[in-house]
User: Fold this.
Amino acid sequence: MKDPYEVLGVSRDADEKEIKAAYRELAKKYHPDNYADSPLADLAEEKMKEVNEAYEYVMNNKKGGNSSSYGSGSYSTSSQYAQVRMMIQQNRLDEAERILDGETGDHSAEWYFLRGMCYFRRGWADQATQYFQRACTMEPNNMEYRQALENMRRQQAYGYGGYNTGNMQGGQCSMCDICTGIMCLDCLCRGC
Assistant:
């Protein structure tokens, strides 16, 4: 098992700001969305899991928390977000949302970000954008949150907004969708 400080690339006396910056850089580098349709997707997912566990371990030690041992697979309450991140990466969205829904009180910026990621994975761009926006408002200097919001805005600008945007509002098709479908069927029928 690797040293969590080594995984993050920080010294043992690094402050929280340095640790968070290192984590954000690694999260951007190994985020599963960067490796969609890539043969490196599984490797990136494993690396992201390792980075999440290392981050939770190091942050718990900095705060004097009684975290579980690094890499053990069991999580303390404060590391539930790492567990949620892994579930989202594995497309276990119902489980991730159950954990997020179980949190009471005021939600953190990370909670809004993770909820937005669940919506993003479901293809619900409008909801994802709202949650990413809220996370960015709460933590405007968080590059991971800002990048997610910017990606959503870019996708929506180019018409890749998911099921609840563009011509798919409410699950209904536009006339262009219907015409395109009929033309495709016609081509298939003529080929038979």
